[in-house]
Amino acid sequence: MADTTQEETVPAAAEGAAAPAQFELQQHHKWYRRPDVLIPVILVVLGLAILATTGDTSPRYRSQFTPGREVRFGWDYFFHLVPQMLQGLYITARATVLGFLIAASLGLVLALLRRAQKRWVSWPAALVIEFVRSTPILVQMFFAQALVRATPGISLNPIVILFLVLGIHYATYASEAYRAGINSVPKGQWEASIALNLGPWTKWTRVIIPQAVPNILPTLGNYLVAAFKDAPIGDAVLSTAGVLFFADWIRADDFRPVEPYILTGVGFLLVSLPAAWAVRRLEERIAYERT
Amino acid sequence: MNAPDTTSAVDISPKGAASVRMRAVDKSFGSLTVLSELDLDVEPGERVVIIGPSGSGKTTILRVTMTLERIDAGTIQVGGQHLYHEETATGALKPASEKHIRNVRSNIGMVFQHFNLFPHMSAIENVMLAPVKVHGTPRQEAQQLGMELLAKVGMVEHANHTPGQLSGGQKQRVAIARALATQPSVMLFDEVTSALDPELVGEVLNVLRDIAEEGKTTMMLVTHEMGFAREIADRVLMFDSGRMIEEGPPSELLSNPQHERTRSFLGAVAEH
Amino acid sequence: MEDLLLTPGQYARLYNGLRATLQLLGQAFVLGIFLSLVVGVGRLSERKWVRAISFGFVEFARGISSIILLFILVIAIPILLGDIFPWVLGQPVIVMASIALGVNMGGYGAEIIRGSIVAIPKGQTEATIALNLNPTQRLRYVILPQAMRIILPPMGNLTIEILKGTALVAVAGGYDMMREVRNMEASMLAEGVIGVTALFVNALIIYFIVAQVINALFRFGERALDRRFEQREGRSAIPLSVAQPGGN
After folding, report:
1. What is the pLDDT of residues C65-106, one digit of tens each?
2. Number of domains in chain A
3. Which of A111, A22, A64 is nearest to A253 (CA)?
4. B186-190 and B108-111 as β-strands: parallel, antiparallel, unpaired?
5. Which chain B residues touch C if contact means CB-CB below 8 Å?
6. Residue A37 belongs to a domain with what CATH number?
7. How far is C229 from chain A (nearest CA, A)?
8. Quick count: other Cβ atoms within 10 Å of Cβ C78?
9. Any residues with CB less than 8 A from the CB of C142 and at least 6 apart, and which?
10. Preferred mutation among B122, B132, B139, B158 to probe C, highest tally of C CBs within 10 A
């Protein structure tokens, strides 16, 4: 990783009259080497990875509670539902993470296609991005469901359809984030890379990407939160067993709709608000790197 | 000393020049003291030029008078009326309401270093905005007044141009017309030529000369144009580190400064 | 592949649904813009409690999932608050959906408005103080007209997000274009007709077209503003002698 050794710096300074005899090269604190950025990011990624690979993915929602019919809102009942709500939230979060893995990688491909020099590549890419981005994900889910049903020989688990659609939908957002991030690197940086005669690999890995990522990362984080907020649509369309499915199921079971839905909203905020807050913190921490 | 000041609330003739009186004014930004214990009297119709190195607090004097910054302690009176205070029935002072401040502030106008024209309005619309919206002048009348003022600053043919189409000197002349449109009794000029290319300074100073000659308004100017100060000022105030260290007629202060700081400052300015 | 064209009768039904969708979008938009302005300006208020409430609203509106907010408003709120606010009882789903989407839009829109106001140079506000404009006049005549140029592009994107959100009412018991599509799908499945995928493809294309129209409208607005900032001679110019002044 150390791109410059001490020996290299000495001859560079040699012509100056006051060149220090021993110059110690100090490592500039690049954002990807700073522990206060790196450690939280690694922890979050690890956490998401664990989330995506473990746990019970086919819960049965049932309340073992006989709520009184006369009260509008009962705290006992509310708290009784918490563990099951968390289970639903877990399924929703898991689909989000898996979907976002697709989004982040497919988004990069889309962004590169969109940047292609040849118009017959970049225009269709632009059209696909614009089309998927500006149509409702709910309709896309219905469409994907119908498509899977109509295609003989293919049967997909609803949860797979959910994270595929989430992934494709948010890939178009991610591609715009990549594009904006790359475009945010000032023109002078590209010109300087040419002036220094850097090869494409050095140019991208040492100049462009280190400057683009601080712009891209927070945007991707925001889209991750946005995808999480869209994931419950899958419960309503595809009957995946997420947090909204939990609320619907309990309502059908007990005819007490107030608690499960309010609880779902509260649980949702308890995840999305800290997540959005964390993204903002990340944004602040790498802000000085932003161009 | 205080008694005549508070009672003689009559030296603000309608649309005429007014006095400015500052007593023990303090202003600091965080730990940085910008004005300390400042006493300053400007008589109606007087033309006062404030000079001093950057950070001396000279611009802050104008800004607290315009209420762009609020003072920490002390009092400011404009035309005999307290700006930041209201008098209770017993004659004691209490912090003024926004309404009171707005009321007194209507006697003051200001021209900025960076013009601060409204970019989405033409020159004439810039000038008409305050008369129409603040003073309720009928549009027809406001436009008449606006065109007269633009004529005064030599900008009639640019009345329908937006600031983006004007040069720096032209913008500043429109800004002066805009400030005059409210017919203020006190006019504050904050380094109005500092942002201009050298060849455009003259046209703005000419306009200031005209205003000074009319003598309808009290003028407080912060400027680095010493020649101009010598020409129009009744009195020059030298500021350093938030205090007035020397004052006098321009002929004396600029030609024969008493204070060491004034000498070195004038020497530094002259070198440019 | 199936034939993607639908019958004229089916398009007529889609058109009915589209009208409901646009009505919902319009209601949500009006509420959303109103909330954006009030909360966005509130975020910059001098009063601490106004700032706190505005901040809370923004965090809530942006943190909650719109589909969950919609279900809470349609299902839970009438039971919970029916006694205190009888108005919420028996409101059609479309009204509750307008509120849910409007709140959603307000949360994001408020941040757009706040950001745009903050982006206006400080000198502009100082000039309005020097001219003695009151705070409302400052916003109305000086700050917001300039902020408009910054507001329009993200507000256009936000409006398209809200358009996408309108489809949610189809699974919450309301009527819109997507509900109509679902009705058509049900009857097709019942009759054993194949080709439901084509229905959804058509719906997607219609949403896409509406989004492009919204996009174009906002672009048009941007261009009109740009023209206003630059050249105005010969357009709304005031004749130099006497005439009625151009509007603000």
Report:
1. 999 999 999 988 888 887 788 887 878 889 999 999 999 999
2. 1
3. A64
4. parallel
5. 66-68, 102, 105-106, 108-110, 112, 114-122, 124-125, 128-130, 133-134, 139-140, 143-144, 147, 156-157, 159-162, 164-165, 178-179, 182
6. 1.10.3720.10
7. 26
8. 19
9. B118, B129, C124, C125, C127, C128, C133
10. B122
Is A98 part of any domain? yes
In a domain, A262, yes or no: yes
Name the closest residue on chain C to residue A147, using Cα atoms: C197
Instruction: Domains for chain C: give ranges and CATH numbers.
Output: 8-229 (1.10.3720.10)
CB contact under 8 A, C124 and B102: no
| Contact in structure between C72 and C30 (CB atoms under 8 Å) | no
Backbone angle region of A40, left / alpha / beta, with phi > 0 → left and psi within -120 to 50 → alpha:
alpha
Instruction: Kindly give, in sequence order, each residue whose CB lies less than 8 Å from that of residue B251, ignoring residues fewer than 6 positions away.
Output: B230
Tell me the C-alpha distance between C141 and C172, whole Å.
Answer: 42
Q: Out of 3.30.70.100, 3.40.50.720, 3.40.50.300, 3.30.2280.10, which CATH number does the structure's domain B2-107+184-270 have?
A: 3.40.50.300
How far apart CA A97 and CA A103 sit, in angstroms, is: 10
pTM of the model: 0.81
Rg of chain C over Cα atoms, rounded to whole angstroms, equals: 23
**Residue B145 identity (one-letter amino acid):** L
Cβ-defined contact of A269 to C160 (cutoff 8 Å): no
Structure tokens at B73: 């302690």
Residue with the two structure tokens 């209420």:
B67
pLDDT tens-place string over residues C201-242: 999 999 999 999 999 999 999 998 888 776 544 444 555 543
